[in-house]
Specification:
The complex is a heterodimer of chains A (341) and B (687). By secondary structure, chain A is an alpha+beta fold. Chain A has 2 domains: 89 residues; 230 residues, 2-Layer Sandwich (BirA Bifunctional Protein, domain 2). Helices cover 40% and strands 18% of the residues of chain A. Classes of the chains: A alpha+beta (341), B alpha+beta (687). At the A-B interface, helix 5, strand 1, strand 4, helix 8 and strand 6 of A face helix 6, helix 9, helix 11, helix 12 and strand 19 of B.
C-alpha cells in the first residue's frame, strides 16, 4: 500500500509540474483529490489493512493529499499569472484613439469674471445690489450731479424710451448706487453688476449693450487712500500680486476728487508692450470720492459721511485678461469662442 | 488741445524734459495723450483737458499747473498797449439786449491796418499746433486764444452797419452765412452779434462771411466777450458746429480776462498790421463778476477725504502756486478763488486741487480697513448659480444675447399663449432698425446665435441664456428673468465607434427634467398646447401645480427657415422668477434607504397607438397600490412586427414594501391585478 502511495506521489508531482493550463490542472485536482479521486479511493481501502497499520497508512495518505493540494495551488497561481498575462497582452488597446466625452458646457467668460469679482468683494464685505435696466433720468443723471445740459444726456448718446426723456436705458450701473442709498443709511458697501446701454454703433471695441460692475462704499471716514487700497487688493486677487495700481486725476460729475485708475500691464509686467502701447499701464476705469451733491440728492449728510465709488467694465477686463480683441464676440454665442473658457 | 514744448517754455521756466513734462502733467490732471517730435526739434503735445478745466485750454493755464508742481516763475505775455487813435466812443456803439446770454461784452477798434500774411514766427507757431494761418489779424486772435484761453473775434469795422454791435437773440427764420460759407437759418435759440441791420456773428461760435477780415479791411473791431456756457453749447449742438471758440465758451471762460485779452491782441495787431489802437474800450457789463470767490478749507477734512495727512502749510503752498490765494486762519484755510477757476465752488473742489498736486502716487495703497464679516450672498445669485451649473453639466454653453433686438422678428417668434412676444418696449432713438426694441423673449437671440453657429459649420449647438426680458407697462416697463435653452444636432459628441442619433423632443424635455431635479423641484407636468412659434405636434406647456413655468418643443420649421436655419431646433423658455419661487419653497429632505429587497417584474403590452405613456403609468400606479415603488418604460415599438394602429410598450415595475420582504406570491397577486386592469381599461394585450 505504501508503495502505491509513493507511486501516486511521484506521478502526481510530474503531472502537476507538466500541466500547461488551468483546465488541465483542475482535471488533475479531480483525479487525485476528488470525491472519486485516486487518494480517496485508496483511503476507502484502508479497511482491508490490519488494524495496527491503519493509523499510519491513513496519516501517510493524508500527508500526500495535503502535499498534492499544495502543489496544485502553487501550480495554479503560476498558471493564473501566465494566463492573465496573455489575456492582457491580447486585450491591449490603441490608447491613442480619442476618448469618449460627453458634451462639455462652458460658462460665459463674463459670468465667470463676474463671479470672481463678486467673490473678492464679498470677502471684503460688499454685497451685490441690482437695479432695472430701464431707469429714470433722475436716477441715471440728475441724482448723479449730471445736469440737464450735460452732453452725455444727449439723444446722440443715450437711448430714451419716451419723448420727454424721463425714461431711458441706464448708461451706467451708478443709478443702483442711488437706489441703494435712497433705501438705506450708511454704511453702504455694494457692488452693482449689470447691463448698460450707450448709443454706440457696433464695432470691434463698442457695443450698444455692455456690462459694468461698479462699487460704492460710504461710511464715516472712507477715503481716497482706502479706495486705492481696495482696488489694489482687488487687482492682486483677480490678476496676481504683481499687478500695480495707479491713479490719474480726472473729472466726473458724480465724484470729487475724481480719478482714472490703471493697472500695470498684465502682459509685459510694466515693461511696455504692444497691448499697453509701450506705456506699461492699462487704463481700467474711473473712480473717485462721492460728490457732496450726490449725497444731498439721496438725503445723506456730506458732513457726517464720506465715501467712494468706482467703475469697472466687465468686457474691458475680460478682453485684457484673455487677450480678446473684439468685443462683439461676447454677444455672438459662437460655440468656438465660448468653448475656450 | 495741442501745444508745443518750446511755446510752453515761453510762459514758464522749468527744466523738465518732454517726457518728464508729460508724466507730471498726466499725473496732476492734464493728460498728455500723445507726444510728437517736430522737425525743428520742438515737440507737439496733445493734451486731454477735462471739461471742468477750461482755464487749461491755454498756455498760461498750463503754466500755472506747472508752477504748482515744479515751482518756477510765470512769464505773462506782454499786454502793454499804446492807444494812439481817436476815442472809441466816436467810432462805434455797443449794446447788449440779452444780458443773460451775454453778461459782458468788450470791444476795441484798431484803425488803418494793412491786412497781410503773418510774419514767419507767427505762422510757424500756429501751424505747429495744426492751425491754418490766415492773415495777420485772424492769426493774432488765434494766438491770443491759445496764450490766454480767451477766444476773440475780429470784425471788418467798415462792414458793420452803423458801426454798431448789438448782442441779441436771432429772429426766428433769420438767415446768416457763417465764415465757412454755409447759409444757416437761425432760431430764437441762437445768440448772435448783430450790427444795426443783421447778424454778423454767431456769438461764441463763428463769425459771419460778410464781416470777415479780408485783404481790403482797413479798420478792425475786436470782440472780447463772455457768453453763457449753456447757451453756446446748445447753439453749437443745434447747428452741428463746433469751433475752437465754442469749445472754450461752452466750458466757461474767464469773465475778467476780457480787457487783458483784447489788449494783448490789439497790441499785436498794431505791431504786425500797423494801424492805431483807438483810445479806450467799449465795455458793457450786465452781470458783475467778483474778482474772487471766498472759500474755506478745513485741512482736517482734506486729510480725511484723501486719507493721508498733509500739513496745512503744504496745502497753502499748493493753493497759492495755483493762484488760489490761501492763508491759514486758525484751524482753517481761507481761500480766494480767482475768476478763471469757475470750477472751484466748494471746499471739496479745493481738496481735489490739493490732492492732485500733492500727487495720488503719494497716497498709501496697501491699506484696507478690516471688516470682520464677508457679505451674505443673495439667494437669487445662489439660485442662478445652481441653474447655470445644471445647464453646464448637461453640456450647454452660456450665451449673452443682446437686449436690443429687431422688432421684425417678433411676430413669428411668438411663444403665445405662454409668453407674448408683442408688444415690445420701443426706443425713441434706436441706432438701427434691427436694434429698435427691448427683447420680450430670449428666443430671437438664441436662434440668431444658432444660425450663426450652423453657418460656421458647427452642427451641434447647445446654448442657454439667463437674462432679462421686458414688457411694456403703464408707467415703467416690467423686467423679468427668463431662461432660454436651445438644442440641435447630435445627442452625443461624435465618436469613432458609434453613430450618434440626432436630438429630439425628449432631449429638451430631459434637459428640463434634469434641471428641475437638480433644483429639488418636482417633475413638472407637460401638457399639449399650440404654441405659436413651435411645431404644433411637438410642443408642450410646462407646469408646476397651477403655475405655468414655460414651454418647450421643436421650433416651427417656418420660424427657423425664416432665420435661415434648416436644422430641427429644440427650444425651451422658462420664467426663472417663478421657478425661483418654487425652488425656495422646496427643501430637500432625506428619505431613508430601503431595508427590504425589491422584486422587478417586466410588463410587455400591446396597446392602441394613441395611448399616451402617462395614461399607462398612472393606471399601473393606481392598480398596483402602495407596494409599487416605480414604473418605467424601457421599450417602445411601433412597426411591422405589430398590428397596424397598435404599439408595443414594455415597462419595468419594481415592487417593494417598506416594512417587510415581499413574497413572490404576494407580488404575483398584485401583478395579476395590474394586468387585468390594463386589459380592461386600456384595451391592452399582454405580450
Amino acid at each position: 500500500m505504501n508503495d502505491k502511495l509513493a507511486i501516486i506521489g511521484t506521478e502526481a508531482e510530474e503531472k502537476i509540474s507538466g500541466c500547461r493550463s488551468l483546465a488541465e490542472l483542475e482535471a488533475l485536482r479531480v483525479l487525485y483529490l476528488g470525491r472519486k479521486g485516486e487518494l480517496t479511493e485508496l483511503l476507502k481501502s484502508v479497511s482491508s489493512l490490519p488494524s495496527e497499520e491503519r493509523p499510519s497508512f491513513g496519516a501517510a495518505t493524508n500527508r500526500l493529499k495535503a502535499r498534492i493540494g499544495e502543489l496544485l495551488d502553487a501550480r495554479k497561481s503560476a498558471l493564473s499569472a501566465v494566463e492573465l498575462e496573455s489575456r492582457h497582452s491580447q486585450e491591449a488597446l490603441d490608447f491613442t484613439l480619442p476618448g469618449r466625452q460627453s458634451f462639455a458646457g462652458h460658462r460665459h467668460p463674463l459670468s465667470q469674471l463676474l463671479e470672481e469679482i463678486s467673490d473678492i468683494f464679498h470677502g471684503m464685505g460688499f454685497s451685490v445690489a441690482e437695479g432695472p435696466d430701464v431707469e429714470t433720468s433722475w436716477n441715471n443723471f440728475d441724482a448723479l450731479n449730471t445736469p440737464q445740459n450735460h452732453p452725455s444726456r444727449d439723444m446722440q448718446d443715450t437711448f430714451y424710451l419716451n419723448n420727454d426723456q424721463s425714461l431711458l436705458l441706464r448708461t451706467h450701473t451708478s443709478p443702483v448706487q442711488i437706489r441703494t442709498m435712497l433705501s438705506q443709511k450708511p454704511p453702504v458697501r455694494i457692488i452693482a453688476p449689470g447691463r448698460c446701454y450707450r448709443r454706440d454703433a457696433i464695432d470691434a471695441s463698442h457695443m450698444p449693450v455692455f456690462q459694468q460692475c461698479e462699487g460704492l462704499y460710504v461710511d464715516k471716514k472712507a477715503s481716497l487712500a482706502d479706495l486705492k487700497g481696495i482696488l489694489n487688493y482687488f487687482a492682486h486677487q483677480l490678476l496676481g500680486e504683481k499687478i500695480k495700481i495707479r491713479f490719474r486725476p480726472h473729472f466726473f460729475p458724480f465724484t470729487e476728487p475724481s480719478v482714472e485708475y490703471d493697472f500695470s500691464c498684465l502682459f509685459c509686467g510694466g515693461q511696455g508692450c504692444r497691448v499697453c502701447k509701450q506705456s506699461g499701464w492699462l487704463e481700467i476705469s474711473g473712480a473717485g470720492m462721492v460728490d457732496p451733491n450726490v449725497f444731498k440728492n439721496v438725503g445723506y449728510d456730506p458732513e457726517t459721511c464720506q465715501g467712494f465709488a468706482w467703475g469697472l467694465g466687465l468686457e474691458r477686463v475680460a478682453m485684457l485678461r484673455y487677450g480678446i480683441n473684439d468685443i462683439r464676440l461676447f454677444y455672438q454665442g459662437d460655440m468656438r469662442f465660448l468653448k475656450q473658457f | 488741445m495741442k501745444i508745443t514744448y518750446n511755446w510752453l517754455k515761453e510762459f514758464i521756466d522749468f527744466d523738465w524734459t518732454v517726457k518728464e513734462l508729460s508724466d507730471k502733467l498726466t499725473f496732476s490732471g492734464i493728460e498728455v495723450e500723445a507726444v510728437e517730435p517736430l522737425p525743428d526739434g520742438d515737440h507737439l503735445l496733445e493734451l486731454e483737458v477735462t471739461p471742468n478745466r477750461p482755464d487749461c485750454l491755454s498756455l498760461l493755464g498750463i503754466a500755472r499747473d506747472i508752477r504748482a508742481l515744479a515751482g518756477g516763475k510765470i512769464i505773462p505775455p506782454d499786454c502793454g498797449i499804446k492807444e494812439t487813435g481817436p476815442a472809441i466812443e466816436k467810432l462805434a456803439k455797443l449794446s447788449i439786449e440779452d444780458g443773460a446770454g451775454c453778461p459782458r461784452y468788450l470791444a476795441r477798434v484798431i484803425t488803418g491796418v494793412r491786412v497781410a500774411e503773418s510774419p514767419g514766427w507767427l505762422k510757424a507757431k500756429i501751424e505747429k499746433i495744426g492751425l491754418r494761418p490766415i492773415n495777420n489779424v485772424a492769426d493774432v486772435t488765434n494766438l491770443v486764444m491759445y496764450e490766454l484761453g480767451h477766444p476773440l473775434h475780429a470784425f471788418d469795422y467798415d462792414r458793420l452797419s452803423d458801426h454798431t454791435i448789438i448782442v441779441r437773440r436771432a429772429k426766428p427764420g433769420e438767415n446768416f452765412t457763417t465764415l465757412d460759407g454755409v447759409a444757416r437759418k437761425l432760431t430764437a435759440e441762437n445768440l448772435v452779434i448783430a450790427d444795426a441791420k443783421r447778424p454778423v456773428a454767431l456769438a461764441g461760435i463763428m463769425g459771419g462771411l460778410e464781416s470777415e477780415i479780408s485783404g481790403s479791411t482797413k479798420n478792425v473791431l475786436l470782440e472780447s466777450a463772455y457768453f453763457e456756457p449753456n447757451l453756446i453749447r446748445q447753439g453749437s449742438r443745434a447747428l452741428g458746429l463746433k469751433t475752437d471758440a465754442s469749445y472754450r465758451f461752452e466750458r466757461g471762460t474767464d469773465p475778467l480776462i476780457l480787457k487783458k485779452a483784447a489788449d494783448r491782441a490789439a497790441k499785436l495787431i498794431a505791431e504786425l498790421a500797423g494801424g492805431q489802437v483807438a483810445a479806450g474800450v467799449l465795455d458793457v457789463t450786465r452781470t458783475e463778476f467778483p474778482e474772487y470767490r471766498q472759500l474755506t478749507l478745513r485741512p482736517e477734512k482734506a486729510s480725511s477725504l484723501l486719507g493721508v495727512e498733509i500739513p496745512a502749510r503744504r496745502m497753502v503752498e499748493i493753493l497759492n502756486a495755483l493762484e488760489l490765494k490761501a492763508e491759514i486762519s486758525g484751524q482753517i484755510i481761507e481761500v480766494q478763488v480767482p475768476s478763471f477757476r469757475g470750477d472751484i465752488e466748494r471746499e471739496v473742489d479745493l481738496i481735489e486741487e490739493v490732492g492732485r498736486i500733492f500727487g495720488y502716487d503719494n497716497l498709501p495703497g496697501d491699506r484696507i480697513e478690516p471688516w470682520s464679516v464677508p457679505a451674505l450672498k443673495r439667494p437669487k445669485d445662489i439660485f442662478l448659480a445652481k441653474v447655470s451649473k445644471a445647464m453646464i453639466g448637461q453640456g450647454f454653453s452660456e450665451h449673452y444675447g443682446l437686449t436690443l433686438i429687431d422688432p421684425g422678428n417678433l411676430e413669428m417668434m411668438d411663444l403665445s399663449p405662454v409668453f407674448q412676444s408683442r408688444p415690445a418696449v420701443e426706443l425713441v432713438n434706436p441706432i438701427s432698425s434691427d436694434l429698435a426694441v427691448l427683447r420680450t423673449l430670449l428666443l430671437p437671440g438664441l436662434l440668431d446665435a444658432a444660425g450663426k453657429n450652423l453657418n460656421n459649420g458647427i452642427p451641434n449647438v447647445r446654448l442657454f441664456e439667463m437674462g432679462k426680458v421686458f414688457k411694456p407697462q403703464q408707467k415703467t416697463p416690467g423686467e423679468s428673468l427668463h431662461l432660454g435653452v436651445l438644442l440641435c444636432g447630435s445627442a452625443a459628441e461624435p465618436s469613432w465607434d458609434a453613430k450618434s442619433r440626432a436630438v429630439d423632443f425628449f432631449d429638451i424635455k430631459g434637459t428640463l427634467q434634469f434641471l428641475l431635479d437638480s433644483l429639488g423641484v418636482d417633475t413638472p407636468a407637460f401638457s399639449t398646447e399650440r404654441i405659436a412659434a413651435l411645431h404644433p405636434g411637438r410642443s408642450a406647456l410646462v407646469r408646476n401645480g397651477n403655475k405655468i413655468l414655460g414651454c418647450c418643443g421643436e421650433l416651427n420649421h417656418s420660424v427657423s427657415a425664416k432665420m435661415g436655419v434648416n436644422d430641427r431646433i429644440y427650444y425651451l423658455e422658462m420664467d426663472l422668477e417663478i421657478l425661483m419661487d418654487i425652488s425656495w419653497q422646496r427643501q430637500k429632505i432625506y428619505r431613508e434607504l430601503p431595508k427590504y429587497p425589491a422584486i422587478r417584474r417586466d410588463l410587455a403590452l400591446d396597446l392602441p397607438a394613441r395611448t399616451e405613456c402617462r395614461q399607462v403609468t398612472e393606471l399601473i400606479g393606481q392598480l398596483a397600490g402602495g407596494e409599487l415603488e416605480s414604473v418605467s418604460l424601457f421599450d417602445l415599438y411601433q412597426g411591422k412586427q405589430i398590428e397596424q394602429g397598435r404599439k408595443s410598450m414594455a415597462f419595468a415595475l419594481v415592487y417593494r414594501a417598506s416594512d417587510r420582504t415581499l413574497t413572490d406570491a404576494e407580488v404575483s397577486g398584485i401583478h395579476q391585478k395590474v394586468l387585468e386592469g390594463l386589459k380592461g381599461k386600456l384595451q391592452a394585450n399582454i405580450r
